[in-house]
TrEMBL record:
InterPro entries: GPI_transamidase, Peptidase_C13. One of its GO terms (molecular function) is GPI-anchor transamidase activity. It holds the Pfam family Peptidase_C13. The active site is at H160, C202. PANTHER family: GPI-ANCHOR TRANSAMIDASE. One of its GO terms (biological process) is attachment of GPI anchor to protein. The chain crosses the membrane at residues 373-391. It comes from Pichia membranifaciens NRRL Y-2026. Residues 1-18 form the signal peptide. One of its GO terms (cellular component) is GPI-anchor transamidase complex. Belongs to the peptidase C13 family. Pathway: Glycolipid biosynthesis; glycosylphosphatidylinositol-anchor biosynthesis. Keywords: GPI-anchor biosynthesis, Membrane, Signal, Transmembrane, Transmembrane helix. This is GPI-anchor transamidase.
Length: 394
């Protein structure tokens, strides 16, 4: 008697596909949840100018530094580069102080700033090395950008610029190509998740025109052949104390808290020609999200996504001691009554992990794991063996 093999094959295949969701569902969930998420925030804030008449550039940088710290990014994750020749300059009527407004209500320098690169350390070479992490082994960790593929980075530059170049300390220049290639190295080395690049200089929008790496959103204060203007001067200080673009950016950010739902699009919409006196540029071509879906705190804050590791329904909690603190144990989602148990069986010690719980030491015993996988594959194997046996008999 000849038996067709097709019905058998169809049954086996359908059984295997029935077991597939147990595997694929967990994988697809993890992948989808990981998209656009970050676990840490960093900020790189640089004033590329020096000398007294560039007071406003240092005030710009210190203002941004204060803002990201207020919104939660710690000093250990902020790289601040300043010429640092303003606060103690002989021309400064307010020695040891820097202000960003003529009313001098907010002092920016004080004792709470941590300058990572100062004076002649603010160079093009050090900036590129910082981004790409190409340092000699003696470079201290506190002066490095220790980011990874889950890092969102806010990069702010201010100073004097031109068509696709930015001056560093009136001694050298960096081009838009240099920064673009540095970002590409960062991408290849998995040193960022997303970058928000902001620059306040003359012809600022030309500085991000050559970027080609993914997940970078850029914002500049002025278009090609346009200047970036100061906002106002302080008659006692004698020079301009802040630039217009940074002033109105800070005005918007002052209303932001760590729980704010404001987005980058809200910030971009706040810029007008009447305020800035130049055409603010926005580049989103390399970014894979719409700015209206990107929270301000994704870059200016340090709001981390927390995953709560709740006890599994299949875990048995066994107390390792003489007495049980039931008041503490009730905090667990599910606890079995094991008051008569002392220590777990020696044969199960390989699957035990110690956890701190109140004043007691609770031992968690995982006695059932991955049963869905086991039953699915066992059922598949049994069906295959049974039908192959029947087929051979026939």
């Amino acid at each position: 008697m000849k038996v067709s093999f097709l019905p058998l094959l169809a049954l086996v295949v359908s059984t295997v596909f029935a077991a597939e969701p147990f595997i694929s569902n967990a994988q697809t969930t993890d992948n989808s949840e990981s998209e656009h998420q970050h676990t840490n925030n960093w900020a790189v804030i640089i004033s590329t100018s020096r000398f007294w008449f560039n007071y406003r550039h240092m005030a710009n940088s210190l203002s941004m530094y204060r803002t990201v710290k207020r919104l939660g990014i710690p000093d250990s994750q902020i790289i601040l580069m300043l010429s640092d020749d303003i606060a103690c300059n002989p021309r400064n009527a307010f020695q040891g102080e820097v202000f960003n407004n003529a009313d001098r209500q907010l002092e920016l320098y004080g004792d709470n700033i941590k300058v990572d690169y100062r004076g002649y350390e603010v160079t093009v070479e050090n900036f590129i090395r910082l981004l790409t992490d190409r340092w000699p082994k003696e470079q201290p960790r506190s002066k490095r950008l220790l980011t990874d593929e889950n890092s969102n980075i806010f990069i702010y530059l201010t100073g004097h610029g031109g068509d696709e170049f930015l001056k560093f300390q009136d001694a050298e220049e960096i081009s838009s190509y240099d920064i673009a290639d540095a970002f590409e190295q960062m991408y290849e080395k998995k040193r960022y998740n997303e970058i928000f690049f902001m620059i306040d200089t003359c012809q600022a929008n030309t500085m991000y025109s050559k970027f080609y790496s993914p997940n970078i959103i850029s914002c500049g204060s002025s278009a090609l052949h346009e200047s970036s203007y100061s906002h106002h001067s302080d008659t006692e200080i004698g020079v301009a104390v802040i630039d217009r673009f940074t002033y109105y950016t800070l005005e918007f950010l002052e209303n932001i808290t760590t729980t704010s739902k404001s987005t980058l699009q809200d910030l971009f919409d706040s810029y007008t020609y009447e305020k800035i006196h130049s055409n603010v540029g926005i580049s989103t071509e390399l970014f894979n999200r719409d700015p209206k879906d990107v929270l301000i705190t994704d870059f200016f804050g340090n709001v981390q996504k927390t995953v709560i590791d709740e006890p599994s329904e299949n875990l048995l909690y066994v107390y390792d001691g003489d007495e049980i603190d039931y008041s503490a144990e009730t905090k667990l989602r599910k606890v079995y009554d094991v008051s008569d148990s002392k220590r777990p069986n020696a044969t199960t010690k390989s699957s035990i992990r110690n956890t701190s719980f109140g004043s007691n030491n609770v031992i968690t015993l995982a006695w059932k794991e991955n049963t869905d996988y086991f039953y699915s594959y066992a059922l598949t194997a049994m069906i295959i063996v049974t039908f192959l046996f029947a087929y051979n008999k026939l």
